[in-house]
Amino acid sequence: MFEARFQSFDETADPSQGAPRLAALRAALRAQGLDGFLLPRADEHQNEYLPPSAERLAWLTGFTGSFGFVIALADEAALFVDGRYTVQAKSQVDLSAFTPVNVADCSPSDWLKDHAKPSQRIGYDPALHTLDGFERFEKAAKTAGVELVALDRNPVDALWTDRPAPPLAPVVLHDEALAGESAASKITRVQAELKKTKADALLVTDAHCLAWTFNIRGGDVAHTPLPLGFAIVPAESRPTVFVDGRKLSNAARDALSSVADVAEPRDLDAGLEALGLRAATVRIDAAGAAVAFARTLEAGGAKLQRGADPIAKLKAVKNPTELAGARAAHLRDAVALARFLCWLDREAPTGAVDEIGAAEALETFRRETGKLKEISFDTISAAGPNAALPHYRATHTTNRRLEPGLFLIDSGAQYEDGTTDVTRTVVVGEATAEMKDRFTRVLKGHIAISTAVFPKGVSGAQLDGFARRPLWDAGADFDHGTGHGVGSYLSVHEGPQRISKLGTTTLEVGMILSNEPGYYREGQFGVRIENLIAVELRAILGAEREMRGFEVLTLAPIDRRAIEPGMLTAEERAWLDAYHARVAGEVSPLVDNETRAWLEAACAPL
């Protein structure tokens, strides 16, 4: 009945390959007179989702998380992960070959400083390390008396005999009716930003920025419609887009050629060298651009202007067309979510539903909208103790049936007019008193963000504690950010905006973010409630400053059976009832009779 086309539940990790592949890497390093190698999980664009050809770290170690870093020395190797993946790493790698290390306990650069020996030579691929990130290694190496050696070819590539070919998905034009602005207009705005900083040109290495600026999309990576490529945007003249010509139809090439010169990626070095011959000042995002590009520019005579890519901030502020598209996408998604939650409520108590089946059902309901292009990330379908892993991924090996307690499902969709991301934690059978307490505290934090009113100039870091206060009151917390930025038919994880302790970017009107506080009891259960929200102007009578708040975009019931009503204030109950009235009012006319009846009951006043 149901199927998943955009997500695999196969377990791709094979810990048994880790030790022999590490041994082969060490032999290759010795042959080059090297004592170790630095391997980030990265490609030349620093993408979150990598094309299969760039999954070098997964090939070497078996670890498949979205963040990882390996330091392989002659006698030991460390795999660095963050708090999302400490449990997963231990299960996916050969622990006799790789030692998992939480970056919160020790950074890779500090580990190198403490474990490498003086006079050792450590290799690295300069195309995979950001300028900022690599400088930390340079400082550590200097302290340890270690030499870092740039390699012309990544040694993993030579060993990976069945490495997939680089992706060649077609470049697709993103219509101005969806983008809300022409590529020519966007280029003019980018050039205006360059002139403010007196930069002669901008090097664009982030494929999301490339896609947004030139109104193109693609399919080179999973879940995000990215065309991989680069661009050089001069402050005065025509940009140059560097993209594999085999991806371009005549229509796509004509559209790009109307606003930019089109060249092959292999021509990028020549373009950088030409900037050097002019002694140009080139804006480069040191946090996202590779060391290789910076060195090519400097060797040619260019001057680096280090700073954030201005496109990222422009892209983050959605125009009225993009916001209208987001609303339409979320209403469409709400129909699929209502159908899914109705189905789940009927079927889960029978014991016949498992994690994979739930994920397949939700994707099927989304496909039946007729507008689904992709899911925006692998669905996190987590029952019982699996929900205590914030980034759990169901496989045929880990798959659990939904049993009495809580079930968490975090999912999203890619539609041409918008990107969605929503988490609901639902009761199967009965919830315990502890589950209700923690669920209600998470809900209180969620409502605190939803109802926040704040002056212009406030950042996400200043709001993050709003979501945590109810949990802090009980001596609890969660170890991820409260919210991330979201793109417009682009990445479901978009910067620079976010609601977290590290979210220093000012929240501007038009930015879309997630609101997703959570709670995780290891080995028992997890709770997360997530809506997407958009920053909007907020009129307050007598206000002395320009004030802002959030428009809630997501439309899906929050499970009332998991709430302890006495823990909510009158204002919180009023917000929840108003939200549910809105969900029922907007979604009920668009669903079948069975779903409508379920939805009206699920959205009844608390």
From TrEMBL:
Keywords: Aminopeptidase, Hydrolase, Metal-binding, Protease. Residues 21-151 form the Creatinase N-terminal domain. GO terms for molecular function: metal ion binding; metalloaminopeptidase activity. Residues 326-535 form the Peptidase M24 domain. Pfam families: Creatinase_N, Creatinase_N_2, Peptidase_M24, Peptidase_M24_C. InterPro entries: Creatin/AminoP/Spt16_N, Creatinase/aminopeptidase-like, Creatinase_N, Pept_M24, Pept_M24B, Peptidase_M24_C, X-Pro_aminopeptidase_P. Residues 547-606 form the Peptidase M24 C-terminal domain. It comes from the Bacteria. One of its GO terms (cellular component) is cytoplasm. CDD domains: APP (cd01085). Belongs to the peptidase M24B family. This is Aminopeptidase P family protein. The lineage of its organism: Bacteria, Pseudomonadati, Pseudomonadota, Alphaproteobacteria, Hyphomicrobiales.
